[in-house]
Each structure stands twice: as C-alpha cells, then as structure tokens.
Amino acid sequence: MKQYNVLFLCTHNSARSVLGEALASTHQSGKFIGFSAGSTPGTSVNPFATELTLEMGYDQNKLRSKSWDEYALHDAPKMDFIITVCDNAAGEVCPYWPGKPATAHWGFPDPSQVQGSDEVKRRAFRDVMIGLKKRIDLLAELPLDSLDSVSLKEIHKTL
C-alpha cells in the first residue's frame, strides 16, 4: 500500500502541528507518514503535546520543533499534502514545495495559549487532537491518488 507524506505547519511547531504529525504517523489506516514544521520554530515541543503523542505510541525521538525550511530542501521527503493548522502560518509566505502537493488550512485554536489548571490545558490539547483526528480519518477515506487542494480543504468544512 502506498503511503502519503503529510506535512503539518504551524508557526512555532510546538503543539498543533506536532499533534498532526503524530496522528498521521500512527493512524490505523497506515496510509500516512506525518511530518511537522514551523515558520519560526520554538526551542521545544510543548509538554502537553508530548504527553499526548506518547499516549498515541509515537516515537519520542522524532519529537522536535523544526523549521519548514528543512522540507523545502532538494533532499527532503516529497510531500503529498501540506496542511496549515494555525491561522498565522496560513497567512505566511511558505517556501516552494517540490512536487506541487495538495494544500489546505485546517485551523485550530492554539491550546498552548489556554490559561488555567493543568487539567484545563490538557483538555484544550485533547480537543485539538480530537479535531485533527476526525479530519485525518476523513482524509484516509478519500481517493488519495486523485485528491486536489479543493477536496482537501472541504474536509475542514464538513466538521
């Protein structure tokens, strides 16, 4: 079975995009290899995002905040889909992506900005994770070989 590379983008690559990477990579369909990056990556992955990715069984050694420039290099993995998950990254000028991947914006609120107890913060991260999982589940059901950007964007509108 063919696997599809999916790059999730967010400004700091510390929460939403990391969750997307882990969800895609651990998806039960086996159809995806997830990647994540940011336009201005932070120094580390948010601890609540790390906690959730470990619960998914994602390899902790793959967790790091990285620049989207890594995926614009000539020797980088070719992306099939590029999905922005924060409004800031969606409005930024992205690098050139080789291979003309299908793109979409699946915006989610930033869980790292939630104030309150650790339980309130965990719930915010889990809510984003659940939303991303629903969209990835829908993506897995589509005819991926013929999917275009318009179809990919419609996934966000259906939920």
TrEMBL record:
SUPFAM superfamilies: Phosphotyrosine protein phosphatases I (SSF52788). Keywords: Arsenical resistance. SMART domains: LMWPc (SM00226). InterPro entries: Ptyr_pPase, Ptyr_pPase_sf. One of its GO terms (biological process) is response to arsenic-containing substance. Gene3D superfamilies: 3.40.50.2300. Residues 4-142 form the Phosphotyrosine protein phosphatase I domain. Pfam families: LMWPc (PF01451). PANTHER family: ARSENATE REDUCTASE. This is Protein tyrosine phosphatase. It comes from Polynucleobacter kasalickyi.
